[in-house]
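A reminder from the course coordinator: this example appears on the midterm review sheet, so study it carefully.

Given structure:
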């Protein structure tokens, strides 16, 4: 199998996020691949700014909730050694934005956490499920037990 060259970690800041991040980092190290991270904003209101949906990380928006989300992304980025240009924060639906960014940035492996849901929530789908179905590249689902 060819080595992965560009790995995208989908980050949701939940309690298990660290575990998923560590797995992504170790796969990136193994393949000496570039590691990018994405956090999709789907839970805070969009302010009336001049931004498009991709949030510039370098400048202060003056919007506290947004700045708090940025700070978390920057902290994880530092911890994982991800270059600033490879940290992405985008408004929208996680399942769509993760797949779209992966295509745009020529990612060859997406890493997501998976709760291993069953019953109704499986029917309704999860981010991991949806990414697995729509991504054009490989997807690694990190099993999250008791999450
Ligand atoms: P869930 O939708 O809760 O099943 O989330 C499963 C996995 O999808 C998480 O472990 C993350 O890898 C990814 N994910 C969920 N929400 C987001 C988000 N807002 N931004 C980026 N990745 C996400």
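Designed residues:
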């Amino acid at each position: 199998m060819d080595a992965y060259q560009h790995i995208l970690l989908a980050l949701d800041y939940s309690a298990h996020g660290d575990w998923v991040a560590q797995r992504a980092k170790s796969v990136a190290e193994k393949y000496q691949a570039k590691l990018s991270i994405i956090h999709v904003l789907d839970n805070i209101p969009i302010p009336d700014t001049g931004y498009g949906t991709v949030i510039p990380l370098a400048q202060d928006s003056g919007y506290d909730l947004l700045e708090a989300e940025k700070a978390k992304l920057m902290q994880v980025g530092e911890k994982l050694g991800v270059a600033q240009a490879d940290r992405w924060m985008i408004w929208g639906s996680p399942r769509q934005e993760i797949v779209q960014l992966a295509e745009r940035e020529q990612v060859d492996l997406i890493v997501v956490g998976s709760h291993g849901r069953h019953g109704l929530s499986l029917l309704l789908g999860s981010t991991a499920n949806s990414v697995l179905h729509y991504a054009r590249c490989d997807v690694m689902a990190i099993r999250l037990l008791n999450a």
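Strands lie at 6-10, 34-41, 87-91, 109-114, 138-143. The CA atoms of residues 66 and 99 lie 22 Å apart.
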